[in-house]
Write a structure and sequence with these properties.
Length: 139
């Protein structure tokens, strides 16, 4: 069970509306739509595992019943701006990862929850680790 807020009996009437709003916001299903090479798709942000940049294309690794990939012609900087509010972190010039799926960060790499390891450059490592710790603390 995840606590969202703690309410005191003496402030219950004043605090309840804000608490309910926080709960609904936390439960809200977030979706984004992209014009992929395979056709326009609406994706749940929680199911986007990471986005990788390769040869002028971006590859979205997405968890449906299995891991599927979608391709799009766009810049990673642009997608990073679109997904920043949903807990995505740029760990490398070529990788934007969903922090919900990071299991561990160590040895200049990110271990994802399905077992894949993605590289983190030495110069970015400390900032990536701090951003992940701040994200986990905010949950």
């Amino acid at each position: 069970m995840n606590a969202v807020r703690y309410l005191m009996k003496d402030t219950l009437e004043a605090a309840l509306p804000e608490c309910m709003e926080a709960i609904l916001k936390k439960m809200q299903v977030r979706q984004v739509t992209f014009p992929f090479v395979e056709g326009e798709r609406t994706l749940y942000t929680d199911n986007i595992l990471y986005v990788e940049s390769r040869k002028h294309k971006l590859f979205f690794s997405y968890l449906d019943n299995e891991i599927v990939n979608y391709q799009i012609y766009d810049k990673l900087d642009h997608i990073e701006q679109q997904l920043a509010a949903y807990g995505f972190l740029r760990i490398h010039k070529s990788f934007l990862v969903n922090m919900k799926h990071i299991r561990k960060i160590s040895n200049y790499a990110v271990l994802m929850d399905w077992g894949e390891t993605l590289p983190v450059p030495r110069l970015r490592f400390q900032a990536v680790r701090e951003a992940f710790v701040a994200y986990k603390g905010a949950m």
